[in-house]
From TrEMBL:
Endpoints of the signal sequence: 1-25
Record's keyword annotation contains Signal: yes
The protein's name: Ig-like domain-containing protein
Domain of life of the organism encoding this protein: Bacteria
Amino acid sequence: MFRQAAAVLAIVTLATTLAVAPADAAGVDLICGGTNTATFTPGLTLTAQTVHIDAVGTLTSCVSSDAAITSGTYTASGNGTLSCLTGGHAGQFTISWNTGAYSTIAFTNSVAVRPLGEVVVLATGTVTSGEFAGDTYTGTFTLSTCSRWRASPPAPR
């Protein structure tokens, strides 16, 4: 019998992609790469449970319809039912762009396990205020800590 390992308290994305497109889908206003660090309370396990998420991140190498926007930082928070293997959550994040402008986004995320074992979070939402207001948002995040659990289960005790 396996006992679950200690809960995952934080994760770091290996890959983060953020895209913002006009609501009329006439193109993409912004695409960035970046990194993200999230804290889950209580920590993630292999069993879904109600959690609160706080995250901070950086967006880099941005290509934007506003040529002055090249990078940003953000904070996010949300709540949902999650495990390392399944679930989803909703929340809000605010990006502070290198220009001094900001964007606030309301989002929903769902967890998907990919064929090579990595755990990917798929995000969608709407820019509710600030730069790119009214645009749709999509993002993907690869969860590195959860991925190691997929590769090898916790040791028996």
